[in-house]
Predict the 3D structure of the following.
Amino acid sequence: MNNIKVQELVRTLMNIDELLLLVEKNRHHLSKIDDELYEKIRARIKELEELKASANDFDFFRYEDEIRALRRLQRKIFELRTGKIINAAWAEVCGQQMTSDIENMCSNERSFFKRLMEIIREFKKSVIEGEIRKRDDKVLVRIKKDVEIQGVDGKTYKLRKEDVVTLPQLNADALIKGGVAERIEVKEDEISQEN
């Protein structure tokens, strides 16, 4: 990065705008950053917070200014890079090659990128092929074994053997496939006779 070490820039905080320019000089593609840049910024903020606790008035305000500047830097880098990662994930799913952006991601960004691609692919599949069921679809099942699950609807289900319950489609399918539950088919005419 122009023979200037990121760690030195973060330590001395000579010019935040200069650091941002170096980190994200290309408006459309990700720049290569130190894989530990985010961690180094967090560590420096923590170090300054500790120094501030026992500082005199002059140093207290100097540390406070540096902390504020580092947080601004942290937020700006996050915003710039996250926007580019979202665009790169969308482009990859749509068939565009984003090799340089992927190579320039640090490890936690790469992990975020992969999760985003999965979500976008799933959404694309649901829109184009209509293959994902609605999350609010419910299925009536009989439970074969005691089990406790976290439903896709956010509820916790404590189920006992022989319970008959209505579960979200995705959870019911998983339990049926695992042999923990069996589907109970209800015919439309049976429902109307009860009413």
About this structure: The longest strand covers residues 138-143.
